[in-house]
Amino acid sequence: xxxxxxxxxxxxxxxxxxxxxxxxxxxxxxxxxxxxxxxxxxxxxxxxxxxxxxxxxxxxxxxxxxxxxxxxxxxxxxxxxxxxxxxxxxxxxxxxxxxxxxxxxxxxxxxxxxxxxxxxxxxxxxxxxxxxxxxxxxxxxxxxx
Length: 145
Known about the structure:
By secondary structure, this protein is an alpha+beta fold. The protein has three helices and nine strands; from the N terminus they run H-H-H-E-E-E-E-E-E-E-E-E. The strands form three sheets. Strands 5-4-8-9 form a four-stranded antiparallel β-sheet, with no helix packed on it. Strands 1-2-7 form a three-stranded antiparallel β-sheet, with no helix packed on it. It has a two-stranded antiparallel ribbon with strand order 3-6. The protein is elongated. The termini are far apart.
């Protein structure tokens, strides 16, 4: 029997190619999983901001009524109302006052709320959701007229 014909067959290159492809696939999957844990993407996915429609109704230059029009209920202790201007830089209040969830139809009148003053045209009012671990997301924001 000829040894050269036994070793020189067409099938012997298939196994190394498949092995290399599998090793590359395993390496890519492991890199993605390790990267997700290092960047803590798993925690952020479960800690997402609520989706809500918020309306701002301005009365004059120093008053705004903020109304929750629909969408997800907002937990009162996770919501901040921030007014950014020179006088208050920034004014920040947690929640809408009474505790409990903020549901569609609930509103807050920010007229001189807790000594708020010095608002002028162009100042920004924002409703911000504050999540666990210091994450936050702006639900809605408007400028005073």
